From TrEMBL:
Name of the gene this protein is made from: LOC106757562
Organism: Vigna radiata var. radiata (Mung bean)
Lineage per the UniProt record: Eukaryota, Viridiplantae, Streptophyta, Embryophyta, Tracheophyta
PB1-like domain location: 3-94
Protein name per Swiss-Prot or TrEMBL: Uncharacterized protein LOC106757562
Segments forming a coiled coil: none
Domain Transposase MuDR plant: 281-333
Length: 653
């Protein structure tokens, strides 16, 4: 879903005066309502051409009455951030006249330039000048052969740009030089020569961009057809949707056998390299990251080193969005990184690398894990490193506050990484013993642990007992024992098939359970939950008289509502069951007596130790009132109960 549209105020058709303060004289003003997802540098250029300006030489935008030149998509994304804060952003269009650039040649011999010259720049250009026709220009990426030349100084003047001096190499016609001769239709060639100041060096280097007509073709050149001027996407940035657009396509298809579409490639963008100091890191649109964690760690390091209060606002398996919360959440800094399906990598899509906030002392993004990774070397050199030393190091190195608990956890994580954790080393004690015997023959090494067949103990000594009828041809009952583990999860223990549920079958089943658990004393400490099964209470009192027994409230209320219906009685019964002390239980029972005496008599017969929390002991470490574990287990095996006995037992197992 696209973001909210923003407003662009376009000033065009006039003259931009770059004095301080700047002003735009004359012209017209046009308002654009723009979708942020479609906003990019090339979109601005195309829109300017739609206004009627073919030769747009420069584009500017302003922040607080200060002009900034619009170079690439990174600047375009800055304009989006400005519009979100100020409500709109101003764009100034500077266009040149549709005429040829003036070329002034200064020669010591004051001789005219010969028909063919080569400009000595990084991407060499061959220019052929004819007396009766307009200039034809053809660009060649590489010239493999060097030519001996004489040097002359040439000043190239173009509209709206600073005058630059480059060296022209003049040479005579030779068979070894690949000069391009093209057929030019008069009036169809538009030559635009620009010197890129960011590429021009003190020596004979520069960049010249040439625009020519589509009718210029059939060039008899010996050079490679793929010698077009290459555009580095990293230099201009990358918008959110342009990473696989036609403007960023790779050169001609290589004709590989697998036929992979070249537009699915990631482009020639930079790959993130971890910096020692991230405070001065320059975020670039198009930068690739191996995975999401690498981007998040880079942002976290930048937040700590630069002292910025950053926060991840969006974090899923497709995108990560982070903003700066400084200056009372008014700081415009933001970054957006997305997953590229075709490349299986992550790439920076948007970045507004401007802070209006001051440095923060408490950085929330500095967690114990990040801090522990910076302590590896320090802790290796100084195993006795104190917690106060860690806090002092963070304050001295990053001007950041670290709490005592965070420093303690960071030291523990770093120690576990260097020396191993206590738990992991205990699991390897047998390997250590065998290694000692192998490396030191004749030694005696003994490791004594508790036997697996020793007394069984439970973190939650709570067991649910239940019985279910079989639905097959031969009837019977399935008795089950379902326990509860320390994580409050269902843990089936035993099950048996009997002909009927009574005291005899329950006693036989409980005797087997005691034999499996191998300790009657342990079983006496258990709490058993049931739904008033026939004969079960008598069997428990005979075999485990000290054990606690509870009735499932769901089944108690099911029997209660057969005689006493109504929401009021239901509420009073559950209030009595959930009472946590005897006086509260007595109060609720008296309230029920005032409402319905027969309901009171029905419940008062059942001892409260079976169904009210006010009489429960603390041995079970749980105050549950229902036997939901057994019911949940029954819902799993309900289909198996209707199958033949062997198939049923196998499915239950």
């Amino acid at each position: 879903m696209s973001e909210e549209r923003f407003n662009v105020v376009v000033h065009h058709g006039g003259t931009l005066v770059t004095d301080i303060p700047f002003r735009y004289v004359g012209g017209e003003v046009t308002n654009w309502s723009v979708d942020p997802d479609k906003w990019s540098y090339f979109e601005v250029v195309d829109s300017a051409k739609e206004l009627g300006y073919i030769n747009v030489s420069e584009l500017f935008y302003s922040i607080d009455h200060i002009l900034y030149k619009l170079f690439d998509d990174k600047d375009a994304m800055n304009m989006v951030g400005i519009a979100k804060i100020l409500g709109e952003v101003n764009l100034f269009v500077v266009h040149s006249m549709d005429e040829e650039p003036d070329i002034i040649v200064e020669s010591e011999l004051n001789e005219p330039v010969e028909d063919e010259v080569v400009v000595g720049v990084e991407d060499e250009v061959v220019v052929q000048v004819e007396e009766d026709e307009e200039m034809a220009v053809q660009v060649e990426d590489m010239v493999e052969e060097n030519v001996g030349v004489e040097e002359e100084e040439v000043v190239i003047e173009h509209h709206g740009q600073v005058e630059e001096e480059v060296v022209i190499e003049e040479f005579s016609s030779s068979d070894d030089v690949g000069v391009v001769h093209g057929e030019v239709d008069e009036g169809l060639v538009d030559v635009d020569v620009n010197i890129d100041e960011g590429v021009l060096h003190n020596d004979v280097q520069g960049s010249v961009s040439v625009e020519y007509s589509e009718n210029e073709s059939n060039c008899d050149s010996d050079t490679d057809d793929s010698g077009d001027i290459q555009r580095n996407p990293k230099d201009r940035g990358l918008s959110d949707d342009d990473w696989e657009s036609e403007a960023l396509e790779s050169p001609e298809e290589s004709g590989s056998e697998d036929g992979v579409d070249e537009r699915q490639s990631c482009g020639q963008f930079g790959t993130y390299v971890k910096q020692k100091n991230m405070s001065e890191y320059k975020w670039e649109v198009g930068t690739k990251f191996n995975d999401k964690n690498e981007f998040m760690e880079a942002v976290r390091s930048y937040a700590v080193h630069a002292g910025r209060n950053l926060k991840f606002l969006k974090n899923d398996n497709r995108r990560v969005r982070v903003r700066c919360l400084g200056a009372e959440k008014k700081c415009p800094w933001m970054a957006y990184c997305g997953y590229l399906e075709g490349c299986r990598t992550w790439q920076m899509r948007k970045i507004l690398d401007t802070h209006t906030c001051s440095r923060q002392f408490n950085i929330k993004m500095m967690n114990a894990k990040w801090l522990s990774e910076t302590l590896d070397t320090t802790l290796l050199e100084n195993p006795n490193l104190k917690i106060t030393d860690i806090r002092s190091k963070a304050l001295r190195k990053w001007n950041t506050n670290v709490s005592l608990s965070k420093a303690r956890r960071a030291k523990l994580m770093a120690s576990c990484k260097l020396e191993g954790s206590f738990k992991d080393q205990f699991t390897r004690i047998f390997y250590y013993a065998h290694e000692l015997l192998r490396s030191n023959p004749g030694s005696t090494v003994k490791v004594k642990v508790d036997s697996e067949h020793g007394p069984t103990t439970f973190q939650r000594p709570f067991i649910g007992l239940d019985g279910y009828f079989l639905k097959g041809k031969y009837k019977g009952e399935l008795l089950t024992v379902v326990a509860r583990d320390p994580n409050e999860q269902m843990l089936p223990l035993t099950y048996a098939i009997v002909e009927v549920k009574n005291k005899e079958t329950w006693s036989w089943f409980l005797e087997l359970l005691i034999e499996v658990l191998r300790d009657t004393e342990v079983m006496d400490a258990f709490t058993f939950m049931s739904d008033q099964q026939k004969g079960l209470q008598l069997a428990l009192e005979a075999l485990l008289p000290k054990a606690e027994h509870r009735f499932c409230m769901r089944h108690l209320y099911a029997n209660f509502r057969k005689k006493f219906r109504g929401h009021t009685l239901k509420t009073l019964m559950w209030k009595a069951a959930t009472s946590t002390y005897p006086q509260a239980w007595e109060r609720e029972m008296l309230n029920m007596k005032e409402v319905n005496v027969e309901a009171y008599k029905h419940l008062i017969v059942i001892p409260p130790r079976y169904w009210s929390r006010s009489r429960f002991t603390g041995r079970a470490v749980t105050d549950t009132l229902v036997n939901n574990m057994s019911e949940a287990f029954n819902s799993v095996i309900v289909d198996a109960r209707g199958k033949p006995i062997v198939t049923m037992l196998e499915e239950i197992r």
